[in-house]
Amino acid sequence: MYSFVARQPILNQRKQVVAYELLFRDSAENIFPNIDSDDATRTLVSNSFLNVGFENIADNKTCYINFSYQAVLQQLPRMLPKEKVVIELLEDIQPTEELLEEVKALHKLGYTLALDDFEYTSDWQRFFRYIDIIKFDLRATSFADIRSVIGFSRHHNIQYLAEKVETHEEFEQASRLGINLFQGYFFSRPELLKHRALSPSQLVVLELLSEINKPNINFNQIEDIFAHDVSLSYKLLMFVNKQIKSDAKPIASFKQASIYLGEERLRKFISLVATSLSSKDKPSELYVMSVIRARFCERIIGESSLSCSPDEAFITGLFSLLDSLLDQPMNLLIEQIQLDDRVKDALLQRKGPLALCLGSIEHFEMGLWQKIDDDAVQLHTTPEKIAQVYLESLAWAKAFSLTTTK
Asked: Is the pLDDT at 202 greater than 70, yes or no?
């Protein structure tokens, strides 16, 4: 399965790229599909933020993202890092009191807000003090109307962006009006980015949705559910990494990550993943292998004299095939998650005690029996015990995969 996101550059007056607008796509055709705007927003956010990361899509530049009326009122923008995004209010949004209150709240939280394809009516006047950018569609708005809006809104310290700029003359004319941001085919057509997307199994998400809607969340149960799905686990740690301070202690377990988020943000995270889930997706053999490795590493660390925790071992095994699942280099994927150094060393450099656990199951998968004898010596166990743990892990993972594909 792949996720598709198109990006179109936003440039300044010197024609330097300063940001990208992210555009929803559902295939390699690079056209906007016939889809509800709410669904498009949620899927775009899930694909770009949870699967890939804004840094990779936008080269560490700001991302402009369209939000529908319902998505804004449901506080979906608050899930995103305010320093990375511009919240665009779609042109068909109505300027209601409910919208104004949420716009005020987003402004107070430090988010940058833009009015997309703006056409002025007096109802929008009260919004201007909270708006940072107004976007004008040159195919739908005359330069005379643009000049008028700029004239009575300039004192609000608003920036102006001209989109659908198709000629040098339009660029020059917009610049003379005081517009300093530009977007359109004159500079670049949308560029389609294709990434392999991880999709959690439907049953796991349903279990999570059931659990988080109970009056009192059982974080032990949440951790157990997360531990069964490599894609959901990766999304969780990636999401948490966006929320924590750079000098904070790395998240070491899924329970710790869930508790760190708190009930409200955990519910929003799981709901977002659930709404973007395709019902056609089923676990692949790579998923099953990841779960086998996770269980094996967790169990074998308990049979050894190594000092690492079972949680660290489980994560090491679970994430050991991420590069194959996502068709991206392991180092780029691991950079997006704040993991313990011992886990990183095992996954990226194959160093340390966790790498020994991981190497042991890889040797078993390949039938390298002499190496398994050597592994047993270093793990202070026996080849027979390694074989037993492997078979138990295989049965454990296969039993789980059967329940998720029914």
From this structure: no
Closest to 13 measured CA to CA, from 172, 224, 227: 172
What's the pLDDT tens digit per position in 340-369? 889 899 999 999 999 999 999 988 877 777
Whether 332 shows a pLDDT value over 90: the answer reads: no
Give me the torsion for CA of 287, 288, 294, 297, rounded to 10°: -140
